[in-house]
Amino acid sequence: MKTYRYAxxxxxxxxxxxxxxxxxxxYPVWAASFxxxxxxxxxxxxxxxxxxxxEKGNGAFAEIITNNPNExxxxxxxxxxxxxxxxxxxxEFNVGGKIVKWSGGDETYRLFAHGDLTxxxxxxxGDFEEVEHHLNSTYPKALEKVRELxxx
Length: 152
Known about the structure:
By secondary structure, the chain is α+β, with helices and mostly antiparallel strands. The protein has helices at about 15-20, 25-30, 130-150; strands at about 1-10, 40, 50-55, 60-70, 70-80, 85, 95, 100, 105-115, 115-125.
């Protein structure tokens, strides 16, 4: 297992950045870096399922492991969805030009305040070597979009 780490400094409060990250109105704006039209379907409670899907319900699903507002959000990826329903665990899809399964990895968002800046970090821990190039190209774009929205 490997951990991929991405970070960005943002001139905004943790509360504002948290809202930008998880609000229904702004999540699709920055998440478009991964896939245009992506939104979430969840109640945001620890232990609940979260869907990261397009308008047809195609995408991925995870469990919310931690939701500590304004500090930490952790998702444990469990697989792909179709029509808002989990697909068989052995299903593979094209991600960044590679055919992959999508399960078992943790995605962790953390906010650290220091002075008038906040550091947003994202860690992807799992067997993602097949999509390393995709992660390394999309996460910096997504974080830059979060900064742009947060600093407005």
